[in-house]
C-alpha cells in the first residue's frame, strides 16, 4: 500500500526524525515513500546510521545535530523524537533552545508521563507545540536496518495531548500517522501509562526474566535445545533492545510496580497451589485465562492494534428480491441462555449447557457471573460448563457489572443480587441506560432490598448488600417475564413464599428451568410462586433454537412467492408462539413436525411456505406471546393485502428502541402507509420501495428491515446494525444461505 510510489500530496513541509531506531526510521521511510513531506530529515549521532538511512532511501537529508536544520524550521514542520525514553528530556532541551514555537513536536516513547513531566520542567509550562504520541507497533528487531514502510499500517497510535496542546499541532500529528496507515486515538496520559504497563511493559519483563533465569541454570544448553514453540512464543520479545526497556522500566516505575506486585501475588498463590496439590485452583486459573485469551484472541491476533470491529459502524445494504428456501437451525434461545448461566451459577455442582447462544447479550450475563467468581468453561460451539457455587457462593465483583445492551441480564440479575451479602452496581450501554428499571426496583424494595437507580428509575442500579429479603405477593402492573423472573429469583433468597400474578401469560422459562434444577415452583393460572431458602441441583440443559430468531426466516418465507423454509429444533413454548399464531391468522402455511420435549421445554421443526397474506387485527392476547417478533411481523403486514392493526402493545415503546416508532418511520421511508399509535400501529399493506432506514441500534429492527429486502423494489440500506450480534451472531451468513443478499458496509465511527 505504501511502497515506493509517491501516493499522497505532502501534508507537512519537513519531517525531522531524531533517532533512527526501528520506529523513527520506519516512519521516515513510510512518510518518504508516500510523499507526505517535502523533505524527510534524519538526525542521528552515528554517521554509520545516517549513511545506511541515506543508502536505503529512508531519508532525504542526514544531520548529526538538530542545530544544523533548526533555523530553517517553522510552521508546518514536524520534529519527531524517536530516541529511548530517558534520552527524550535531553532532546526536548535542545528543542527548547533551537526551535521556534511554530514547529510541531511529537515523540514515540512508550511512557508518556515522564515525557510530559520533563517538558514541563524544561519549558516552564507545557508548550502548545508538543503533542506526545506512542505508536503501538514495533518488534523485537531494532535499528535502521529493521525499518519497515508498512510497520504502522492498521496499527494503533495513541496520542496523549495535554490540555495546552494546540489544535493545529494535534491535527498535524494525527494526519501524519493516519497517512502512514495507522489508526489514531487519544488517551489520558496516566491511563496510557497504566494500560501499557500491564499490556506491554509487564510481558517484556516476564520474558526477559524467564530467559535470564533459564540461561543462568547450569544445564542451560540442554534446556534451550529442547525449548520448543511455547518457549519461542513466550520469549520472542526478550530479544528487544535492552536500552529501550531499561528506560521504560525506570520511566514508568509506579505503574509497572503496581502490576508487578499484583502478578507476584498471583504467582505466589500459584506456587502454593502447586505445592499443595490444589488442582482446583489451577484449573480455575487456567480455564479463566484460556477463556479470556480466546475471548480477546481474535482481536489480539488479527491486528494487535487495529481498531476493534465494535468501534466500526456496520450498515447493511440489502439487494431486492430473492427466494427464501432452505433447511436451517438458528442460534440458541436468548432467554434460556441467560437463565442457564444464572441458575447454573447458583446451583450446587456442574451444569452442562449445549446450544448456548454466543451472542453479546448472553455473553454479558456469562461475564457477569465470571466477575462474581464463578468458573465457567466455554462457550465452545454452544457448549458451556458452569461450576456452580451454590445459592450463597457468589463473590463481590471487583467492579460494576457491565451488561451491554441486555435488559434481561439487568432485570433478572437485579432480583438475583438483591439478597446477596455484597454491594453491586449494574451498568450498560446507552440504550440500556435509557430503559425503565423501576419496574424491578419497586417490587424488590417491597421485599426489603435497597436499590438506587439514576433519576427516572434508569440504570445504573446500585444494589446494597446484606439486606434480609422477605417474601411478598406481587401483582404485576405489566405483562413482563423479566419482572416476574426478577421477583421469583429474589424470592429464592427471601423467607417464606414469594408469588407473582401477571395480567397476561408471559414466557415461563424461569419457572420451567428452576424446576429442571430441582427447585419447586408452583404455577397456578396467572400465579407463580416459590419458597425461599432451598437449593438448586446442577443439571444438563439443551437450549433449543430461538423462535425469536427463527421468526425472521418464518416471515421471509411467508412474504416471498416460491419460498419454503424448514427451521430445526425451535423452542415452541406456548408462551412464545404468538408469531406462529399471528402468521397463521394472516394466511401463512406453517407446519410443526417432530414435536418433542427437551429438558422441560417443547421443541419442534417448523416448515413455512409462502401464501398470499391478508391484514389482520392482532388479538391483544397474542401481544406478550409475540412481544419480540413484532418488528418482523410489521414487515409481514406491509406485504399483506389490507390493514393490520396492533393495540395493547405499549411495551414495545420501551424495548432496545421504541420499536413502534422505529418501525413506523422505516416503513414510511420505504413507501408504506404506517401510523404509530400510543399502544400499537396501523399498517396498510403495499409495495415496499427502497431507501435508507435506521435500526436505532436495535438488533430486531435491523434484521426486520433486512427481511423486507425480499419484497422491496429497490435497495434498502439499514444503518447501524452492530447490535445484531447481541442476539443473532451469523445472521447475515445464514440469511445468505437461504437466499437473501445482504452486503455489510463498515464505516469508521
Ligand atoms: C425476556 C422477556 C421479554 C422480552 C425479552 C426477553 C426474558 O421482556 O422482550 O427480549 O427473557 O424474560 P419483558 O419481560 O420486559 O416483556
SSE diagram, text form:
Layout: E1 12-18, H1 22-33, E2 37-43, H2 47-55, E3 61-63, E4 78-81, H3 88-98, E5 104-107, H4 113-123, E6 130-131, E7 133-135, E8 156-159, H5 167-179, E9 183-186, H6 189-216, H7 220-226, H8 229-235, H9 242-251, H10 253-275, H11 279-302, E10 312-318, E11 325-328, H12 334-346, E12 347-354, H13 360-371, E13 375-380, E14 383-389, E15 401-402, H14 407-417, E16 424-427, H15 430-433, H16 438-446, E17 450-454, E18 458-464, E19 469-470, E20 473-475, H17 481-491, E21 494-495, E22 497-501, H18 509-516, E23 522-524, E24 527-531, E25 536-537, E26 540-542, H19 547-559, E27 564-571, H20 578-586, E28 589-598, E29 601-609, H21 630-638, E30 643-646, H22 659-669, E31 673-677, E32 680-684, E33 691-694, H23 699-708, E34 716-719, H24 724-727, H25 731-737, E35 742-748
Parallel strand pairs: 1-2, 1-4, 2-3, 4-5, 5-6, 8-9, 11-27, 12-25, 12-26, 15-16, 19-21, 20-22, 33-34
Antiparallel strand pairs: 7-8, 10-34, 10-35, 12-14, 13-14, 16-18, 17-18, 22-24, 23-24, 27-29, 28-29, 30-32, 31-32
Helix pairs in contact: 3-4, 6-10, 12-13, 12-18, 14-17, 16-17, 19-21, 19-23, 20-21, 21-22, 21-23
Bound molecules: shikimate-3-phosphate (S3P).
Residues 335, 408, 480-482, 485, 506-507, 627-628, 651 line the site of shikimate-3-phosphate.
Q: What about the largest sheet?
A: 6 strands, parallel
Biggest sheet: strand arrangement: 3-2-1-4-5-6
Strand segment tally = 35
Number of helical elements: 25
Approximately how much beta-strand content do the residues carry?
15-25%
CATH class value of the largest domain: Alpha Beta
CATH superfamily of the largest domain: Enolpyruvate transferase domain
Average predicted confidence as pLDDT = 93
Distance between the termini: 23 Å
At CATH level 2, the architecture of the largest domain is Alpha-beta prism
Shape: globular
Integer-rounded radius of gyration: 30 Å
The helix content, as a percent range, equals 25-40%
The set of bound ligands, ions and cofactors reads: shikimate-3-phosphate
CATH topology of the largest domain: the name is UDP-n-acetylglucosamine1-carboxyvinyl-transferase, Chain
Tally of individual domains: 4
